[in-house]
Write a sequence for this structure.
């Protein structure tokens, strides 16, 4: 496999690439015939996969990136759609010369992006595994969510960090306190306006119809300690997708960070079982 500049990736290649009209930070690692795209949660970055990506890279190419508006990728303002987020993945694959079908794994909003990519580019998706997928917001939750966002934009991420950590990073999962503190501090570094823009994208998302039309194998993972999107919501997404599998593991909302080993085993077993 070669990238656009005809250079062969060696081991691990961190880069900044302008794709689909935006600057994205990304990393391509591993090797082999199969490829996997990892999409992080809202408020996260490609570092969310630090303890998962290397294990997948032993047997496949792994592409992870900061979604637009997150991490060190270009910040966003105004309207943002899932179409744009899915098109970013397609553009990155094109830039790296990754043709054919790829598997995708995403957490929370990253799960919604991965599922939408499979719906928008069915010819490019071999399988999708998603943890606590954020495929929309219930109507009764939209007004308070948007009110909270206005406060974050005005006062910054610190105003929401304790609630977000309590609901998303359960105290039961903070045995590795250094890992928790590192994630919390990185979360505080988000650009408040970009974070709010991504949240509004989620609030406007209507994915129910497209979920029923997905053709590739799908695994939906619920986190028994996820208080942001409890297992019942993840299970509801699985039920909407034809022949989707559902698994529940002891983890929280930020599962790639909190329980990387358990998450890897769950996704790896699924991908192997469907030949993706």
């Amino acid at each position: 496999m070669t990238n656009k500049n005809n250079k062969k990736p060696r081991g691990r290649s961190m880069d900044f690439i302008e794709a689909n009209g935006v600057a994205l930070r990304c990393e391509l690692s591993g090797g082999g015939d199969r490829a996997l795209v990892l999409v992080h949660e809202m408020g996260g970055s490609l570092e969310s996969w630090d303890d998962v990506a290397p294990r997948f890279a032993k047997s496949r190419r792994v592409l992870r990136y900061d979604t637009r508006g997150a991490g060190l990728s270009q910040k966003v303002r105004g309207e943002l759609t899932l179409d744009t987020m899915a098109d970013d993945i397609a553009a990155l694959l094109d830039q790296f010369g990754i043709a054919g079908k790829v598997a995708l794994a995403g957490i929370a909003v990253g799960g919604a992006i991965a599922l939408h990519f499979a719906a928008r580019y069915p010819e490019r998706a071999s399988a999708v595994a998603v943890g606590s997928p954020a495929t929309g917001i219930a109507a009764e939750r939209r007004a308070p969510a948007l009110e909270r966002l206005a406060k974050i934009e005005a006062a910054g991420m610190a105003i929401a960090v304790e609630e977000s950590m309590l609901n998303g990073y359960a105290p039961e999962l903070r045995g590795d306190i250094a890992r928790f503190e590192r994630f919390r501090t990185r979360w505080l570094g988000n650009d408040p306006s970009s974070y709010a823009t991504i949240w509004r994208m989620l609030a406007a998302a209507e994915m129910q119809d497209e979920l029923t039309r997905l053709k590739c194998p799908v695994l939906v993972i619920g986190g028994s300690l996820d208080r942001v999107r409890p297992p019942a919501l993840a299970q509801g997404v699985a039920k909407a997708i034809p022949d989707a599998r559902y698994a529940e593991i002891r983890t929280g909302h930020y599962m790639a960070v909190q329980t990387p080993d358990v998450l890897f085993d769950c996704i790896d077993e699924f991908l192997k079982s469907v030949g993706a």
Observations:
- The longest helix spans residues 139-155.
- The chain has eleven helices and eight strands.
